Amino acid sequence: KLAEARTASGTESMAARELVIKSDFKGALGKIKPLRETNMAEDLRPRIERRILELERCARFKESLINAIKNKGSQPSRFKLDIDAQSFAGLEGTIEDADDRSIQIRLSAGGLVNHLWTQFDPVQFHKFVTDQWKYSKEQRRDITDQNDLAAVCMEFGLYERALEANKAAQDLMSDPVAQF
User: Fold this and answer.
1) What's the predicted TM-score (pTM) here?
2) Taking the CB of residue 115, how many other CB atoms lie within 10 A of it?
């Protein structure tokens, strides 16, 4: 039974990893969460629970990112709408909208194009986040976002970036005006 549980856990973990690399955190969570119910190996339970919690944080971060892109109302997110051509294969324009599958870009030359989240590799995703949204200390004042960004970096294997995000979160803990 233990060998079967390890095999099932390994298979689903690899499938989840493939989805994480494509920035599909909800899909990855969907692969791992059922293991909570089907896993019979007690020694795997803590690992599965930690992974579920991390993937929930990743999914929440992507939702926050999409909401920041959409938030153009009276309290804007200060998300930079002008895109960095290096992050978007030479495209020039502004970010118009986003959903779970893609980012909609209005091209400077005219027209709209959808840039799929899957087109980002982990380093590009992190660069996009830090260049467009979390570009200043003021933009990094939300401790939940910082902790969730650390989880994303850990899932991506960007361990130094995860440490940076955790350090920013720790700094916020001693800041009396931080958003908790």
Assistant:
1) 0.88
2) 19
Residue 115 half-sphere exposure, CB side, CA atoms within 13 Å? Answer: 26
**Tens of pLDDT along 64-88?**
999 999 986 556 778 888 888 877 8
Please report which residue ranges of the chain form alpha helices under DSSP H.
2-21, 25-38, 45-70, 122-132, 143-156, 159-173
Residue 121 CA: distances (Å) to CA of 5, 88, 157: 31, 12, 11
The amino acid sitting at 137 is: K
Q: What angle do CA 125, 141, 49 make, to 5 degrees?
A: 60
What is the rounded radius of gyration, in angstroms, for the C-alpha atoms of the chain? 18
The tokens for 48 are: 């599965």
Residue 162: name the closest of 87, 61, 13, 39 by CA. 61
Asked whether the beta carbons of 105 and 93 are under 8 A apart, the reply is yes
Q: What is the number of residues in the chain?
A: 180
Q: Three-state SS string across 85-131, please?
A: HHHHCCCCEEEEEECCCEEEEEECCCCEEEEEHHHCCHHHHHHHHHH
